[in-house]
Design brief:
The complex is a heterodimer. By secondary structure, chain A is an all-alpha fold. Chain A contains eleven helices and no strands. Chain A has one domain (about 60-274): MetI-like (MetI-like fold). Chain A has helices at about 1-5, 10-30, 40-55, 60-95, 115-130, 135-145, 150-175, 180-185, 190-225, 230-240, 245-274. In chain A, helix 8 packs across helix 9 (about 190-225) and helix 10 (about 230-240) packs antiparallel against helix 11 (about 245-274). Chain A starts with a helix and ends with a helix. Chain B contains eleven helices and no strands. In chain B, helix 4 (about 60-95) packs antiparallel against helix 5 (about 100-115), helix 9 (about 175-210) packs parallel to helix 10 (about 215-225) and helix 9 packs antiparallel against helix 11. Classes of the chains: A mainly alpha, B mainly alpha.
Chain lengths: ~270, ~260
């Protein structure tokens, strides 16, 4: 036999590595309660089987479809409204934290201590805003304002303001400094210097990142519904809890279509505006 | 003579108008509760709500429980990623065109479906079969990540040079041996780096997956928030932030060490 004549020269190392990995994996498997045989017990098989067989007949009565369409629009609306609010927070924050726009930096290359402190404080606030996952923001806002789309809009607004401001500032910092610097050094006001010195060069990148984030926000707002923040997710959560497989199937199809549509529209917009 | 201005296309202004209409329609159609925010006592009640989080719960028993949930989150992410590697590799073999075009197209569609359903949706669906707890979360991470990794693995396998495997096969090596010794080693570094990257993503995802009841820190957060135990919830959120910060730092350090 071929295998007997040419044994794997590295078999000792491979076997030892496998055994060590399995030993290390063992506590992980117990911690994650990895018990695949539970899937095969009669009760859960019956539940999953019933749920899955419903899946093959997606619910399609007109009333339900109208409701799904309303929820899909709500998901898009939550994402768009949330992103608009996020921009309202992110743009002023970008103007503050962008070091290129510092006047005290001109010539000396050193910022005043006070402006450095303000920038750093705002940066920490932004880090906090984007480090708390958007789902956790949604969960908190559901506690404050109750179930419904308001929580989703606010969660997207906060989490995305943190991300957008950081990336906007990075894009502005990485553009060519020459035009902006000469405008500022010759006494132009900061806003004019930004509009005429930095934006023309980085606008394409800024727009395409914003559109990409809008796409992410749509996915995010669909998922946030699962904690009660409105839209498609909330309806899907309710149907799953009622074990209505047909309804869940319809909504899953709708969800996949929505994500694909957002992807296409975002590509189109980026090509057009970018 | 003044040069004529460059022709302006009508498309872009129309597009911007459409975007504006989208935003206006969004705000108009959502019934947002602004009243609750601009009410005179809104600031006071928000302050009261925030003050409820301080100080975070620090009783040793609770900290141990949080640590346990943190460990559970890590375990879920690791086991989920491993499942995804196994599933992704099994699906990547047909998806890289080894068993003909029909199988390739079919598995690619399957991978797309696996990938386009987010972890959280998988988790809430799998709760039906696997019951509450980290097992459902692990399977959910595995299902979504298998779609992502399967696609990446398939592309990696398609892009390696086919000659070494063909040479081994021509000289009489068994198909499996030829694949394992000629094709896999070429794609392995790339596959490993994809896997590490997805593991990093999965740690972050596993932290929040629990909010639908699928174990880990998220389940704890949901539990304490629904009982309005804000101080315990604050501890869990801090644990989440620490976990994410550690993962970010580790991945940054690793990437710098590898690219230097």
């Amino acid at each position: 036999m071929a295998l007997a004549r040419h044994p794997d020269p590295a078999w000792r190392g491979r076997v030892t590595a496998t055994v060590v990995c399995l030993l290390l994996l063992w506590p992980m498997l117990t911690a994650s309660e990895f018990k695949p045989w539970l899937l095969l017990d009669a009760q859960s098989l019956a539940a999953a089987g019933g749920f899955l067989s419903d899946f093959l007949r997606p619910a399609h009565d007109p009333e339900f479809l109208a409701m799904v369409a309303r929820d899909t629009w709500q998901t898009i609306a939550i994402a768009s409204a949330g992103l608009t609010l996020a921009l309202l927070g992110a743009i002023p924050a970008t103007l503050v934290i962008t070091e290129r726009l510092s006047l005290s930096r001109l010539g000396t290359r050193r910022m005043r201590v006070s402006s450095r402190i303000v920038r750093q404080l705002l940066r920490w606030v932004l880090v906090f805003l984007r480090s708390v996952p958007e789902l956790v923001w949604a969960l908190l806002f559901v506690r404050i304002v109750g179930l419904g789309p308001t929580a989703g809009v606010l969660a997207i607004a906060l989490a995305y303001a943190g991300m957008l401001a950081k990336v906007y500032a990075e894009i502005l910092e990485s553009s060519d400094a020459h035009a902006l610097d000469s405008l500022l050094a010759n006494g132009s006001p900061r806003l004019a210097a930004l509009l005429y010195g930095a934006l023309p060069e980085s606008s394409a990148e800024l727009v395409s990142y914003t559109v990409y984030r809008w796409e992410c926000a749509i996915r995010g707002s669909a998922v946030m519904g699962f904690v009660g923040a409105g839209g498609l997710g909330q309806r899907m959560d309710e149907s799953t809890k009622m074990m209505a497989g047909g309804e869940v199937a319809t909504m899953l199809i709708m969800f996949v279509l929505l994500v694909a549509l957002a992807d296409i529209v975002s590509k189109l917009l980026r090509r057009r505006l970018g | 003579m003044k040069p004529s201005p460059p022709p302006r296309s009508l498309g872009t202004p129309l597009l911007l108008l459409a975007l504006l209409a989208l935003v206006v329609a969004s705000f108009a159609s959502l019934d947002l509760q602004w009243a609750a925010f601009f009410a005179p006592d809104a600031l006071g009640s928000a302050r009261e709500f925030l003050a409820g989080f301080a100080p975070p719960e620090t009783a040793p028993a609770f900290l141990m429980k949080t640590l346990g949930a943190l460990w559970e989150t890590l375990a879920m992410s690791l086991v989920g990623t491993l499942l995804a590697v196994i599933g992704g590799l099994l699906l990547a073999l047909p998806a890289s065109g080894r068993s003909g075009g029909v199988a390739r197209g079919f598995t690619r569609v399957l991978l797309n479906v696996l990938r386009s359903i987010p972890e959280l949706v998988w988790a809430s669906l799998l709760l039906v079969a696997a019951g509450l707890g980290p097992f459902a979360g692990t399977l959910a991470l595995g299902a979504h990540t298998a779609g992502v990794l399967g696609r990446l693995f398939a592309d990696a396998l398609e892009n390696v040079a086919p000659q070494p495997e063909a040479a081994l096969r021509d000289n009489g090596a068994a198909p499996l041996a030829a694949f394992l010794y000629a094709t896999l080693p070429q794609a392995l570094p790339q596959m490993l780096s994809y896997t590490l990257y997805r593991w990093e993503n999965n740690i972050r995802a596993a932290a929040v997956l629990g909010v639908v009841g699928a174990g880990g820190l998220g389940q704890m957060l949901k539990y304490h928030l629904s009982l309005f135990q804000m101080q315990s919830a604050a501890t869990v959120v801090i644990a989440m932030l620490l976990l994410v910060a550690c993962v970010d730092a580790a991945s940054f350090a690793l990437r710098r060490a590898l690219t230097r």
